[in-house]
Amino acid sequence: MSDKIVDEKFAKWNGIDRLKIKWNPKIDTDKCIGCGMCVTSCGRDVFRFNYESRKAVVQKPYNCLVGCTSCESWCVAKAISFPDKEYVRDIIKKDGLAAKSVQEVNSNKSKYEVEK
Ligand code: SF4
Ligand code: SF4
Asked: For residue 98, is it within any domain?
């Protein structure tokens, strides 16, 4: 297993160094029932499973997709939490990311156009 806290392919988010963005799940270990849903369902290898304590562990926090909260929804024990989504919206505003995405959409019609 790699000991890196972020995989190379997730090292940037919209051009921003991913390590500068504090967005990742936190697990309340008292609430975690060890069902493994977060471990097996996250597509970004954020979680691992501690077979001794039978609890999920956040192994690669910065692999988490900025703004995603899917694992919070999957956790029947409500053991997973995230920062306020306003934190992500503030980054988008501060770094002008929406303006950049408009340019990206406008210059890549063949990629993004609705299929007919
Ligand atoms: S989904 Fe929730 S209860 Fe299940 S292993 Fe993950 S943190 Fe624990
Ligand atoms: S929020 Fe999404 S990407 Fe982040 S750890 Fe949960 S499921 Fe994975």
From this structure: no
Residue 112, C-beta contacts closer than 8 angstroms, at least 6 positions apart = 105
Q: What is the pTM of this model?
A: 0.93
Atom of ligand 1 nearest to the CA of 74: 1
Residue 35 lies in a domain: yes
Per-residue pLDDT tens over the stretch 75-114: 999 999 999 999 999 999 999 999 999 999 999 999 999 9
**Residue 20 covered by a domain:** yes
Find the domain containing 56 and state its range.
Answer: 8-82
Mutate to test the pocket of ligand 1, among 26, 31, 38, 59 (most ligand atoms within 8 A of CB): 38
Number of domains in the chain: 1
Contact between 69 and 87 (Cβ < 8 Å) = no
In a domain, 13, yes or no: yes
Q: Determine the length of the chain.
A: 116
64 neighbors 44 (Cβ within 8 angstroms): yes
